[in-house]
Amino acid sequence: MATVNKNLSDYDKNSVPNAKDFRFGIVVAEWNDTITEGLFKGAIDALLENQVPAQHIIRWNVPGSFELIYGSKKMLQTQNVDAVIAIGCVIQGQTKHFDFVCEGVTQGIKDLNVQTDIPVIFCVLTDNTMQQSIDRSGGIHGNKGTEAAIAAIKMAYIRQQASLSHQIDNQHLLSSGAIQIEEGKPLELKE
Ligand SMILES: Nc1c(NC[C@H](O)[C@H](O)[C@H](O)CO)[nH]c(=O)[nH]c1=O
Ligand SMILES: CC(=O)[C@@H](O)COP(=O)(O)O
After folding, report:
1. Domain range holding 124?
2. Does residue 150 have a known ligand-binding role?
3. Ligand 1 neighbour 52 (Cβ under 6 A)
4. Is the CB of 90 under 6 A from ligand 1?
5. 143 domain residue, yes or no
6. Which residues are CB-neighbours of 159 under 8 A, at least 6 positions away?
7. Which pLDDT does position 22 carry in this prediction?
8. How far apart are the CA of 79 and the centre of ligand 2, in A?
9. 97 is catalytic
10. What average pLDDT does range 127-135 have in this prediction?
11. Is residue 6 included in any domain, yes or no?
12. Distance (Å, rounded) from C-alpha 158 to C-alpha 178?
């Protein structure tokens, strides 16, 4: 389904977990800042609307979308966050640079999701024209920042639940007679 058939700001509020205990990092590219500021507003409004305290949100700026990769990596490595939202706007120019920036930031953020335990949400517009970006950052097609914030809440919840279920599994195994093997400690075999 193309964006023209789905407003980016529409979401089922009943499907969104309460996010009052989650903490979010938002990394914002300064290139096309009239657009990225609009995306940031959409994201912030959606987080606050879903009970995220303002003090649970940290924002860093980076020069351009390509730097979202490094900025998001350092955000999740150094800040206590449950998800990171990477906000950028890449608009086709006269050369192939658009292709390389878009591919690079896409692959880089994908890699962060594979290699780290913190979800990084891809809130990067990759548009042919400025008008397309305007339409998707609070215009006629809604706001991709809103979409990204809801995705961030849902992924933070999935991460939390996955961690809890892992702990439950461990407890279940231990209570059913499994033994916890501790490095460097001789294995005591039960009689
Ligand atoms: N043309 C756009 C860029 N280009 C800059 C790169 O993202 C990067 O900052 C530079 O190559 C230095 O590493 N960035 C955008 O976010 N949007 C553009 O349209
Ligand atoms: C995505 C870009 O880097 C691009 O907007 C830069 O414009 P140009 O391709 O004309 O150098």
Report:
1. 20-175
2. no
3. no
4. yes
5. yes
6. 82, 83, 117, 118, 119
7. 98
8. 32
9. yes
10. 98
11. no
12. 27
Alpha-carbon distance 149 to 151, whole Å? 5
The whole-angstrom separation of Cα 149 and Cα 130 is 22
| Model confidence pLDDT, tens digit, residues 40-70 | 999 999 999 999 999 999 999 999 999 999 9
Do the annotations mark residue 95 as ligand-binding?
Answer: yes
Alpha helices in the chain (DSSP H): 33-49, 68-78, 97-115, 130-135, 144-175
Q: Does residue 155 lie in a domain region?
A: yes
Residues 6+ apart with CB under 8 A from 25: 57, 58, 59, 60, 72, 75, 76, 79, 81, 83, 84, 85
Q: How far is the CA of 59 from the centre of ligand 1 (A)?
A: 19
* In the block, residue with structure tokens 């989650």: 22
Number of domains present in the structure of the chain: 1
Q: How high does pLDDT run on average in the chain?
A: 94
53 ligand 1 Cβ < 6 A: no
- Joined tokens for residue 51: 């009970």
Return the CATH number at 45: 3.40.50.960
